[in-house]
Design brief:
Layout: H1 4-18, E1 25-26, H2 29-35, E2 38-41, E3 43-44, E4 51-58, E5 64-68, E6 73-78, E7 85-86, E8 91-96, H3 98-129, H4 135-161, E9 172-176, E10 181-186, E11 193-194, E12 199-204, E13 210-215, H5 217-220, E14 228-231, E15 237-247, E16 253-260, E17 270-275, E18 284-287, E19 292-294, E20 297-303, E21 307-312, E22 314-318, E23 322-326, E24 333-337, H6 339-350
Antiparallel strand pairs: 1-21, 2-24, 3-18, 4-13, 4-17, 5-12, 6-8, 6-11, 7-10, 8-9, 10-12, 13-16, 14-15, 14-17, 15-16, 18-23, 19-20, 20-21, 22-23
Helix pairs in contact: 1-6, 3-4
């Protein structure tokens, strides 16, 4: 027995290089009883059994809006608290900024220059029509009027970027919500000085939630974008939209899903979910006793005319008595007793 353990470990190390292929293990019929080998049929099951896992409710980036300070300034008031329902366009923060005063001054100056240039251009058009000035002078005055109009538009755009009304007065800016949703987080307090681009509040659309599902690499290999997700004891459903290309700190693949009609869920909540089977594959079931492991790889011994073939499988779901998996075909027969003897035979065949 002690000699068998290192042999099995060496076999586990060989599996990646063997590509999970193995020759049939010849087991004559007369040896089966002495080895205690019994078999059971592979049965097709309802594909909606799928893969069960625990997931966390998240807020996708597309459902979040971060309202940031458009310029340096002083927070004068925070109008709402976290958890409040917010309407589209509702005021959230007021900010006092000296830059706004300067922007208003430049806007007024640009308007005055434009009015003067427009009057000069109108006068020169009249004089040119009477033949009293050269065309070059008219062209110059028209160009100056156009440049002045551009300066006015630039000044208006600056005020809009600052979140201020073009026709308003004073140094205070009122920042509003760009969407309808829930105030997720307030990041500042009244009296706090902030720099331009400092995040102030977060508003989220809690009608558009998502899932983060940690799966083992083996489980993730059975999942594809577009598969459906169902929450346990809930009518909420979803769809797989992404599989993280790298492993996290726990050596899991993070799978993301979007949800529909998620009104009764909360951010950060842990939920039990089922990832429904692919539409182009059938879920198969065998007794759990027929499942064997080498390292973190699962396999079964499939019966054939010569004996049994070690065959890799992907586990979708497992209970104490049954395992749902892929990698086999219906009506195949697998060993459910005598697996220790089959492992030993496999090791002997690889030597």
């Amino acid at each position: 027995m002690l000699n068998t353990i290192p042999k099995l470990l060496s076999l586990a190390l060989l599996l990646p290089t063997l590509g999970w292929t193995a020759a049939p293990l010849p087991i004559p019929e007369e040896q089966r009883q002495s080895l205690g080998i019994e078999v059971a049929a592979v049965v097709a099951t309802d594909a909606t059994l799928g893969l069960t896992a625990t997931a966390k409710i998240t807020l996708p980036p597309a459902s979040v809006r971060v309202i940031a300070a458009p310029t340096d300034g002083l927070i004068t008031s925070v109008l709402h608290q976290s958890g409040e329902q917010i309407a589209n366009g509702q005021a959230l923060i007021t900010l006092s900024s000296p830059q706004l005063i300067e922007a208003r001054r430049q806007s007024i100056q640009a308007n005055l220059k434009h009015n003067l240039a427009a009057d000069m251009a109108a006068r020169d058009r009249k004089l040119f029509a009477e033949g009293l000035i050269a065309e070059t002078r008219l062209t110059t005055s028209n160009n100056e009027a156009s440049l002045a109009a551009s300066d006015v538009e630039a000044a208006r755009a600056t005020l809009k970027l600052l979140g201020a009304k073009v026709e308003g007065k004073g140094a205070e800016i009122t920042l509003t919500s760009p969407i309808e949703g829930t105030l997720i987080e307030t990041l500042v307090e009244p009296g706090q000085r902030v720099d331009a681009s400092t995040p102030l509040v977060k508003v989220g659309n809690l009608k558009q939630l998502g899932l983060e599902i940690p799966l083992s690499p083996e489980q993730a290999n059975t999942i594809a974008i577009g598969q459906s997700v169902k929450l346990e004891n809930s009518t909420v459903t979803g769809e797989i939209i992404a599989l993280q290309p790298s492993l996290d700190a726990a050596q899991n693949v993070l799978v993301r899903a979007k949800l529909t009609q998620a009104t009764d869920l909360r951010l950060g909540q842990s939920v039990n979910i089922t990832i429904l089977g692919k539409t182009d594959t059938k879920a198969l079931s065998i007794p759990s006793a027929g499942l064997a492991w080498l390292g973190n790889k699962a396999y079964v011994f499939v019966e054939n005319a010569q004996g049994f073939t070690p065959t890799p499988v992907n586990i979708l779901n497992q209970t104490d008595t049954q395992v749902t998996l892929s990698g086999l075909t219906p009506n195949e027969r697998v060993a459910v007793k005598g697996l220790a003897a089959l492992k030993a035979k496999w090791q002997e065949a690889e030597e």
